[in-house]
Amino acid sequence: MNTGQASPERLESPLVWIDLEMTGLDTAKDMVIEAAVLVTDGQLERVIEAGNSVHVDRRFLVKDMPKLERYLHYRIVDVSTVKELCRRWYPAALTPPLKKGRHRALEDIRESIEELKFYRSTFA
Questions:
Q1: Which residues share a beta bridge with 22?
Q2: Is the model's pLDDT at 104 over the cut of 60?
Q3: How far apart are CA 21 and CA 102, in angstroms?
Q4: Three-class SS of residue 24?
Q5: Residue 96's closest CA among 109, 106, 113, 83?
Q6: What is the rounded CA–CA span in Å between residue 122 and residue 99?
Q7: Of 62 and 14, which is predicted with more confidence?
Q8: For the residues of 73-106, what is the DSSP string, one character each?
Q9: In Å, what is the CA distance from 62 to each residue of 5, 56, 100?
Q10: Separation CA 27–CA 59 (nearest Å)
Q11: pTM greater than 0.85
Q12: pLDDT tens for residues 44-84?
């Protein structure tokens, strides 16, 4: 039965953050030019160093890194979806951290982690 409470094990499960920079968004003709990976614990603290168009990134992983992609969970945490829901449901409270917008893979992941921490502290 779902009690609405997350299990302690689920709360502490690691999250794998992946960001790819590509020459475009067409998986048939474009290619990955930069990749970054970070792993955080359940408290969104970095565990090891290894955001935001995660679904396009996943398609490039399927094409270019299928072994890695098969290792990942099928659920994807998309911070831009959280942002959009907060924008719709809590517009007065929405002042997320500013992003630098340099579009570098590792920096994108770090900024996404900080943004998700903001949403957790603001709306949890």
A1: 32
A2: yes
A3: 11
A4: coil
A5: 83
A6: 18
A7: 62
A8: -S----HHHHHHHHHHH-GGG--PPPP-----HH
A9: 33, 10, 28
A10: 7
A11: no
A12: 887 754 445 688 788 888 999 899 899 888 888 888 888 88
Is a pLDDT exceeding 50 seen at residue 108? yes
Q: Identify the DSSP state of 7.
A: P
The answer to whether 68 touches 61, Cβ cutoff 8 Å, is yes
Residue 88 contacts residue 95 (beta carbons within 8 Å) = no
The contacts of residue 2 (CB under 8 Å, 6+ apart) are none
The structural domains of the chain, with segments of one domain joined by +, span 10-123
Rounded-to-integer distance, Cα 76 and Cα 72, Å: 9
Which residue reads 């020459």 in tokens? 23
| CA-to-CA separations, 71 to 25, 57, 65, 75, 76, in angstroms, rounded | 23, 15, 10, 12, 13
| Residues noted as catalytic | 103
Residue owning tokens 């890695």: 68
Q: Which CATH architecture has domain 10-123?
A: 2-Layer Sandwich (3.30)
Tell me the chain's radius of gyration from C-alpha atoms. Answer: 15
